[in-house]
């Protein structure tokens, strides 16, 4: 391998607790993390180091599972096991709780903002996916509730450019949703994984979707125009990365700047894959470019590429730590 | 791997043992079935398709799921079979009540107009051994009149009773259960206490009609044909059980689809059964001309209350109602204005996502309506999953719903105020419109049985 993953800094982010998720702000200058200690921490750079800038403590009564920044960077959404989703507004270095979205029956597993900034999606162990709309007065209302999965929904992610939503579930499937005639519907069900699908990531163009699973593989899916030319969408699995991960793959992240694919695994490792340049777009080949086999001392739950600084990667783990990495050409 | 880590790993599986089972192989399949059953989705035979408002873990107990699944074609056939045996003590008089929302389904399926379809359906049911077949429009009339009355009372006390307005309609059991189990006191004091058409029909049959026929209520087996599965849950509500006589007001709810399935099972075509006119609860002879209430297929509570309130409170006669679509087709507003002033503002809110919006606005105190007609099913009762589900499953058959709507609209409208049968019953059965009998038999109560989210039974993620 000509590339390497070098550790830049390790942060004891959520002491005595799991760190579940990390998310970079759209400007790339801040990193939000959340964990089993029910708190959200905001990290920023001071000189060469990352330090904790704020702690959002009293927003939730249980574990905070995921956080997501709005496309404009002014809002942060947090999804919690307490069945609520909190919307925070950024005021310089402070965050104030703007509103709390209720309605899910139990643990909210994920929250994601649409690229327009007007829509928000959440998903839950109650098997449903909700889409919310925000109006000019910062009021959030339910647009739809879709029940296409038969089990816990782990993750939702929006297409980078279209109003299209994807969800991943304990039922081993990925669902794709689009708005059709007054309501949202599941337009495609991607089957192929043989166990829970934990996470999803679209590539920069939105033409391909990566999914990662408890079956220890990562699959790449590509959208094809439907044979009959209308109606439902057609997604096919064009690549499966297997044999690399020794345990459940909990997260996958696709860098918008470089196209590199990072994974977070239950074998405590962080891995980066790159697509072979000569590979056929209908049968892409991804190779392992670098890995940190003992990235953490426990399960790695999340990986996230910095949206502005190529090669900067964050990961977090059950041991409560965040690691900042640089993925680069080895000298 | 240390023991602590192994334990932590196990804890990480949110469905705990399920995940471990999954890793080992196909054992997980069994636990899926278990959880599906608790959710009311039984996989053998006919699938229960509860509305979005009911199909979650929080709303149905296992006992209720069981009681619901017992309301089946097999059960009715069992009762019919007992009637053919010699043991007279097990004989029952079968009464079937048909919801006006179910008739358009049969009209479309039979290719007949609604009245003809009703006669054929009646003929079929009687050929099975059902003795009396009624139309529940009569009971719906009671429900509408009582809802109108309650609305006026609530309106008049709106300034000193914070729970008076908005009033929510009470005919949809999915909505009622969701309110009781999940929403609690934010919503339940606002729900109209008038019983639903189904519940009133239950009383009418087991109290009034039984007495007229000199039958004890437990000798009557009351089947109700409804457009949805939620009505099965309504039938098992505690309030509608007479523990002294161990009899329910409605013994079994069957969906339109289930009855149609029965016809197909017995290879009965539409030409087969005789055309038999429906019976009258008051025992009158002669053909009962089918009429309907206002609105688009859900008994028109909004429309009736709107017209009644306009007249009663402001002396205005409303002839036509204009609906304004707000967020989508299932969230509509109706306004009464005079000289630029808004006198009344009502809303029709159907479907889970719109109910969420309504509840959200309730929490913020931003509901300007005096009345909201709330239904679990987008499109209203004609779109009930017991008749509107497409054969492929999972989706509503839009073409079928449209045909049902047309069939429903073809019936003439009659206001309950001018139904002579209702007047007679108020006197003969209830001893007056404001009597304690009327209050007891035509009204109900709601209970807050909310479960807290913050105390989970075990660690989940």
Automatic annotation (TrEMBL), chain A:
The gene is CIAO1. It holds the Pfam family WD40. This is Probable cytosolic iron-sulfur protein assembly protein CIAO1. WD repeats lie at residues 22-43, 57-89, 101-142, 146-178, 190-222, 293-331. Component of the CIA complex. Interacts with CIAO2A and forms a complex with CIAO2B and MMS19; the interactions with CIAO2A and CIAO2B are mutually exclusive. Interacts with CHD1L, ERCC2, IREB2 and POLD1. Component of the MMXD complex, which includes CIAO1, ERCC2, CIAO2B, MMS19 and SLC25A5. Interacts with WT1. Interacts with CIAO3. Interacts (via LYR motif) with HSC20. One of its GO terms (biological process) is iron-sulfur cluster assembly. Belongs to the WD repeat CIA1 family. The lineage of its organism: Eukaryota, Metazoa, Chordata, Craniata, Vertebrata. InterPro entries: CIAO1/Cia1, WD40/YVTN_repeat-like_dom_sf, WD40_repeat_CS, WD40_repeat_dom_sf, WD40_rpt. Signal peptide: none annotated. Key component of the cytosolic iron-sulfur protein assembly (CIA) complex, a multiprotein complex that mediates the incorporation of iron-sulfur cluster into extramitochondrial Fe/S proteins. As a CIA complex component, interacts specifically with CIAO2A or CIAO2B and MMS19 to assist different branches of iron-sulfur protein assembly, depending of its interactors. The complex CIAO1:CIAO2B:MMS19 binds to and facilitates the assembly of most cytosolic-nuclear Fe/S proteins. CIAO1:CIAO2A specifically matures ACO1 and stabilizes IREB2. GO terms for cellular component: cytosolic [4Fe-4S] assembly targeting complex.
